[in-house]
Amino acid sequence: MSLKKFINQAVSPWMQSKGPDDDIVLSSRIRLARNLSDFTFPVIASEQQSKQALEFIKEKLEGKTYHTMGTFDLVTMADLKPIEKEVLVEKHLISPNLAEDANHGAVLINENESVSIMINEEDHLRIQCLFPGFQLNEALTLANGIDDWIEEKFDYAFDENRGYLTCCPTNVGTGLRASVMMHLPALMITQRMNRIAPAINQFGLVVRGIYGEGSQALGNIFQISNQMTLGKTEEDIVEDLRGVTMQLIQQEKAARKDLLEMNKLQLEDRVYRSYGTLSYSRIIPSKEAARCLSDVRLGIDLGLIKGLSQNILNELMILTQPGFLQHYFQETLGPNERDVRRATLIRERLHSEDFKKPMD
User: Fold this and answer.
1) Which of 60, 156, 230, 303 would you label with 120, given CA atoms 20 to 30 Å apart?
2) At what angle do helices 286-301 and 310-319 cross, to 10 degrees?
């Protein structure tokens, strides 16, 4: 298959659709960890055992179609250049762990990139379903449907008392990781997030950065997910996350309202300074670009900036990441070169839009 359709476009097709509360909840994700009963688990498997598992899964799933999700194409890590792997990580189609695999890791991706099935990552299979906005239940329904479809072809490693068996103890049980990606700029500006994050942990949830465990919250974007899967049903896990997400949405909306009512001039100044930085900078590091993009998106959501769409900001958040930036310009770039090219790309993209100042 051609890799071009997965790496040439910064925004996956599913991201271009609208979703509930998508001004704050960028996406909802359900991931299921599964292992095959007849194969050694990936973390202790030999090269030959990993190869056999990959070939077995490939035979059963490559090119197959699940309902309206389209055909699943296989991308093997051994066939990818480092930058191509980085692009897939930046699009959330594979994990950083899978990207490090040089031999028998692979991923199956459907046509609109809303479903990816990682092979030989930490577990034999990692089924991931992504939806725009706040759609956890919809993502769970799809993930369960795909899981049942796959289970018709394989025997899963399952224990009657413990549930699905996984390499990491925190995934044993349902094997389910539910998460939402949230844009929370007002909570960060008002410093309320410092108090909220520890409270979230008390609900058995964890707050991470944009690329999950060990990553930074670039552009005020946070990933909220469950920590444990044992002892709870899938529905309970999702409902716990739904409840906390709804609280965060309300808190973010309240913080945005307070900023507009009490500090509107300062907020406008911040938003327009960031827009000016993005529009005219000749050098811009990734952290600064993410912060400015976050400010401008907040300005769009609050009606302070008109004539600029959210999709452009979504595109630039991915397009200006190191891997995609180098893929876009078709050359290996050092950190300083990336900062220059990033600024150029953002200027060109923003200036191509019919930007209008808000009416006084």
Assistant:
1) 230
2) 170
Mean pLDDT, range 21-30, rounded to an integer = 96
> Residue 211 annotated as binding?
yes
Q: Does the annotation list 210 as a binding residue?
A: yes
**pLDDT above 50: residue 355:** no
Q: Which residues of 92-107 are buried (b: 16+ CB within 10 A; e: fewer)?
A: bbbbeebbebeebbbb
The pLDDT value given to residue 228: 76
347 is in an annotated binding site: no
Specify the residue for token string 């459907």. 110
The C-alpha atoms of residue 349 and residue 351 are separated, in whole angstroms, by: 6
The reply, when asked if residue 109 is annotated as ligand binding, is no
Rounded CA-CA distance 35/162 in Å is 14
pTM recorded for the entire structure:
0.90
* 133 marked ligand binding residue: no
pLDDT (0 to 100) of residue 70: 86
pLDDT at 285: 95
Tokens of 96: 């950083």
Whether residue 28 is annotated as binding a ligand: the answer is: yes
pLDDT of residue 315: 86
Helix (H) or strand (E) holding 289: helix 286-301
The response to whether 92 counts as a known ligand-binding position is: yes
Is 126 a known ligand-binding residue? yes
Instruction: Answer yes or no: is 213 a known binding residue.
Output: yes
265 is written with which tokens? Answer: 């001039």
Q: Could you give the CA distance from residue 221 to residue 92 in angstroms, rounded to a whole number?
A: 14
pLDDT for position 5: 66
Asked if residue 29 belongs to a known ligand binding site, the reply is yes
Is residue 272 within 8 Å of 343, Cβ to Cβ? no
CA atoms of 194 and 182, how far apart (whole Å): 15
The answer to whether the annotation marks 209 as part of a ligand binding site is yes
Backbone angles phi, psi at 190, to 5 degrees: -85, 0
